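Still learning folds. Look over my entry:

…
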Amino acid sequence: MKAAESSPDARPPIWPRGPIPAGTYRARLVGLYLDDFSQNPILALTFQVEEGRCRGRRVFDWLWPSADEEAAAMGPGKFSALARSMGLGAPESVASCEELLERVCLMEVSLMELEDGPANEVTGYSPLAPPLNDSLPWPAVA
């Protein structure tokens, strides 16, 4: 009997509970929920890792405006990075948050220590491939 070929995605996922290791992951936005928390809207995002040993695992991120200037600046900045990483351009061009659903991006994840143990923190988003720059000249053909 021939042994099945082994690939990283053929192995069973690890880390069934708790945070995933820090790193960059290809992830799909599978859920979003807009809630009014203490009169401040919160956009709760649920990502699912698509590849590697952590495939299928979910990572959560939250975006919200705040009275605190530093936190308020983070929310729109992160949303802008997310929209651009998913190919939607500037956040102003996103008519509805639902346009983000089922789109894929690279998600940078770190670990943070909380009172009840470690947790994941999404620290950034980037596109799967860099955008094309059509302003560059075409190479000369010999």
About this structure: The radius of gyration is 18 Å. The domain at 23-126 is CATH 2.40.50 (OB fold (Dihydrolipoamide Acetyltransferase, E2P)).
